[in-house]
Every structure is written in structure tokens, then in C-alpha cells.
Design brief:
By secondary structure, the chain is of the alpha/beta class. Among the domains are: 224 residues, Rossmann fold; 93 residues, Crossover junction endonuclease EME1, DNA-binding domain (DNA polymerase, domain 1, Orthogonal Bundle). Helix content is 41%, strand content 11%. The protein has 15 helices and nine strands. Strands 1, 2, 3, 4, 5, 6, 7, 8 and 9 form a nine-stranded mixed β-sheet that branches. β8, α10 and β9 form a beta-alpha-beta unit. α5 crosses α9 and α6 crosses α8.
């Protein structure tokens, strides 16, 4: 059987085309694709062990002709590399938060091959790029709010007087008329703001600004009323000094102290005869040491008239005043006074106030008491320890534990000195008793008398006693 005949292949000539010329321009694209595909296949095969240019077998020296499917895959990969891609979604944490109004992706417009070629590489325009912004934490919001307090503009709030509810009850020693009754009577004779009653943690009368939306803010004025017999009782039970101490720590700069005579003339003469020196000392201390505004009145009616006149003055002063409310997040019992002092020194033209709820929380008797506050109250219970002397002791020994440790060290030094004296030491030393540890302690500022011998022994004996009694029994340190 004869085999079919095929046309003979023309003989190969040695004439080659120039390096930069191609006799068939249409096949240039396919040649390039075949070259890239073969090179990629060669690189992939060279990475496998046992293959490569150095150790390749003789049969592998000839280039492998790629299949049509591989050529199409290479062409598709080339087109994907040349074509622009759509912008990837923003997944970075810093790009998830943008300023309001900034688009998170590029504006979508119809895209054509001509516009794609003219645009070049796909990039977002500068004006459409989202600005990264780290999300604020809640603590950051609180800190930001603390630096920008709420402002009540003048004319947007009303002022009314808040009277302690205890001033609305008669004490049974007079005709039954109370301060609240007299204030109501005084408000009918002259224009007067509204009077409300509420339990006050501090003071007898405060003035409150109402914003009309249910919020109330305490103005920078407080009034404390004392009748002569109440003052004497406060001096006896030491409540007088404790109350003044709380008024100074309230953060209110204008404290008005009203001292009213007793309604009975005979009782008034009796009180002044027995307690005249203490009453005069208390009056001087209120004005000089505490720097309160003191007003002495003779009757309850005169006290009510003075309060009514003071109220009209406060209302008139606040007609053109903006109130700056200290945020609750910035109020802390332990640093409230320092914060308020810093704000007033930084902006002396502003009037800073606090909310009524914050005022009650700050000035509560038992809330947020520090060890230093309790330590100072303990020292005030000792007769003869004034506020200045107590402050000097607390400044040197901030806690009772430090004071007791210092007292024990002083006792050890005293015992060592006595043992050395008994041993017959040639050097004669003066033995300092531990009870005299507080002798000479005074405040840094001048004008304050230091603690003497008797008072130092009284305080030290109290803390070294086995049990408390009128006759304190001291023990060895």
C-alpha cells in the first residue's frame, strides 16, 4: 500500500532577518506571548530539583512548545496587568473614620476604553481621599468637655432663693414665727424673687440660677444665720469651728455670716455676761481669720429685711453676667478647690458655678472624707487646738499613723537618753520628753502662735492613753 505523499519542505536558507525587523508583523504579538510563556515555564521548571541549565538532560535542551491554552492564559494575565483596577475597599483602621462629607470611595462614572487610556493609572483624586481620623474614646470626650464648660448667657436664667427647710420650723422658744415667714412677708412689700425650701447640706440660704429646663446652678454666694444662743452652743460643742471649716472648703468665695441677737433681752444680757469674751473672739475670728462678711442684727425682722436687700443686689449684679458651669466630670472632692482656684485665676472675668446636685455632693458631711480631713477633725476635738494649729500639725504629719510613728520614735529617743544618763555618761544631755513633740509647732505663715507645753502634753497624752476619760491616763511610749 502506497503511503500518501506530502509536499516537500523547502530547504532552510542561511539568510536571517535583521534583529529589529519582523517579516510578519501580525505574528509579533503571538511570538512575544510564546516567549514570555516559555520563559515563565522555564523559570518554574528550574526551581524544581533535578532541573536547570546546569544539570538538564540532553532532551531538555530543546525549548518546549507551549500549548494554546497556556498561551491564552498568558495573554489574559498580560491584559489584566495593563488594565486599571478599581480601588480596593478601605480596610485600614485609620481609614474607617473620615470627616463628615468626605466620600469613602472614588465617585463612580461610566468608564470607556478611550477614557481609561487617557486617564492612565487608576488613582483617587486628592480632594476625594478620606482623611484618616482616630476615633475618640469616651475619656477623650470628657476631657474635651471639661475645658469648654456650659455657658448660661445673661438673661436666659432666673434667680430664686433656696432656704433650708429647718428655717421653716419654729423652735418653741419664740412666738412661732420663722425666718421663712419673715422672708415671705418681706417679699410682699418689695419686688422679690421666688422663695423655695429644700434640705441644704451647707448654709441656711443659697441663691440658685434656673435655666428654665429643669437644671439649677448654685451662685457664688452663701449665707449662714446664727442666733446668739446658737453661737454659744456651737462654741461649747465645737460645732462653730467645724461649720466654718466646711464653709471655707465649699468653694464659694462670698460667705455671709449673720449674727442675730436673742429675742429676750434678759437672756441676751445673761449670755453676754457669761460668754462675752468667747463671743467677741468668735466675731473677730469670723472677720479676720475666715474673711467672712459679718452682719449683726437685733431682731428676726431685721434679718429678713437684710436678706431681702441682699437678694435684690444679687439679682441686679447677675443681670449682665454669663455663668460658666463647671462640668461634673471635672469635679472631684479631693481636687475641687484647686481646680476652681485655677479656673478663677486663669479667667478672673468669668463667674464659675456648679450644679445643685454637685454642690450637695461636695459639701456633704460624710461623703468623700479623706484621711487628712478626719485627722483634722480629731485634732479639733482637743480644747485649745485652733484651726491654724490643726493645719500646722496636719501639714507636718498628714495622717494619724505618721503621727503615732513619730511619737514612738520620740519615746525611744527619750528612753535612750535616760539610759545613757543613768549609765553615768560624762556628757550631760538635756532629755526631751516625747510629750513635748508638738511644742513649738506652728504654721509657716507669721502671726500664728505656736503650740505650747500644756497643749502638746494634752494632745500626746490623749493618743497614748489606754482608754478615753476626763482624766487621761498616759502610758509609756
Amino acid at each position: 500500500m502506497l503511503s500518501p505523499s506530502y509536499p516537500s519542505t523547502p530547504p532552510r536558507t542561511s539568510k536571517r532577518p535583521a534583529p529589529n525587523s519582523d517579516p510578519n508583523p501580525r505574528s509579533r504579538k503571538h511570538k512575544t506571548a510564546r516567549t514570555q510563556s516559555s520563559s515563565s515555564l522555564g523559570e518554574a521548571s528550574s526551581s524544581k530539583p533535578g532541573f536547570g541549565s546546569a544539570g538538564a538532560p540532553p532532551s531538555a535542551a530543546r525549548a518546549v512548545e507551549p500549548s494554546p491554552s497556556k498561551i491564552l492564559a498568558a495573554l489574559k494575565a498580560r491584559d489584566e496587568l495593563r488594565s486599571p483596577k478599581s480601588p480596593a475597599p478601605l480596610t485600614k483602621p485609620s481609614q474607617r473614620y473620615a470627616h463628615p462629607g468626605t466620600p469613602l470611595t472614588a465617585p463612580t462614572t461610566p468608564e470607556t476604553p478611550s477614557s481609561r487610556a487617557a486617564a492612565g493609572p487608576s488613582r483617587l483624586p486628592v480632594e476625594s481621599l478620606p482623611l484618616p481620623m482616630t476615633p475618640l474614646r469616651p475619656s477623650t470626650f470628657r476631657a474635651a468637655g471639661a475645658s469648654s464648660p456650659l455657658v448660661l448667657k445673661a438673661g436666659t436664667y432666673t434667680i430664686h432663693m433656696a432656704v433650708d427647710y429647718r428655717e421653716c420650723k419654729g423652735n418653741g422658744r419664740t412666738s412661732g414665727r420663722t425666718l421663712h415667714d419673715e422672708l415671705q412677708l418681706a417679699s410682699t412689700t418689695a419686688p422679690h424673687p421666688r422663695i423655695t425650701t429644700m434640705p441644704l447640706e451647707l448654709g441656711d440660704i443659697i441663691w440658685v440660677a434656673d435655666d428654665g429646663a429643669g437644671a439649677h446652678y448654685v451662685l457664688d454666694v452663701i449665707l449662714e444665720r446664727k442666733r446668739l444662743d446658737d453661737l454659744v452652743n456651737g462654741i461649747c460643742n465645737r460645732r462653730f469651728r467645724e461649720q466654718k471649716f466646711r464653709l471655707r472648703r465649699s468653694g464659694i468665695s462670698r460667705v455671709v455670716y449673720v449674727l442675730e441677737e436673742h429675742p429676750s433681752a434678759s437672756e441676751c444680757r445673761k449670755l453676754r455676761a457669761h460668754w462675752g469674751a468667747d463671743i467677741r473672739d468668735a466675731i473677730s475670728e469670723v472677720q479676720v481669720v475666715d474673711e467672712f462678711v459679718l452682719k449683726q442684727t437685733r431682731t428676726l425682722r431685721e434679718t429678713a429685711e437684710y436678706i431681702a436687700a441682699l437678694t435684690r443686689e444679687i439679682v441686679q449684679q447677675h443681670q449682665t453676667k454669663d455663668l460658666y458651669v463647671v462640668p461634673t466630670a471635672q469635679i472631684n472632692r479631693f481636687s475641687y478647690l484647686e481646680t476652681l482656684t485655677t479656673l478663677r485665676e486663669t479667667h478672673p472675668q468669668r463667674t464659675y458655678v456648679t450644679s445643685l446636685a454637685d454642690f450637695a455632693a461636695i459639701n456633704s458631711k460624710s461623703a468623700h472624707l479623706t484621711v487628712g480631713d478626719t485627722w483634722g477633725r480629731m485634732l479639733k476635738c482637743v480644747h485649745g487646738m485652733s484651726g491654724e494649729k490643726v493645719g500646722a500639725v496636719v501639714a507636718q504629719w498628714p495622717t494619724p499613723r505618721l503621727f503615732m510613728e513619730a511619737l514612738k520614735d520620740a519615746g525611744a529617743e527619750e528612753r535612750a537618753a535616760r539610759a545613757e544618763a543613768i549609765a553615768g555618761s560624762k556628757r550631760r544631755t538635756k532629755i526631751r520628753e516625747a510629750r513635748m513633740m508638738l511644742k513649738g509647732v506652728s504654721a509657716a505663715e507669721g502671726g500664728v502662735r505656736s503650740i505650747g507645753t500644756v497643749l502638746s502634753g494634752k494632745v500626746c497624752d490623749l493618743f497614748l492613753a489606754k482608754k478615753y476619760s476626763d482624766g487621761v491616763e498616759s502610758v509609756s511610749v
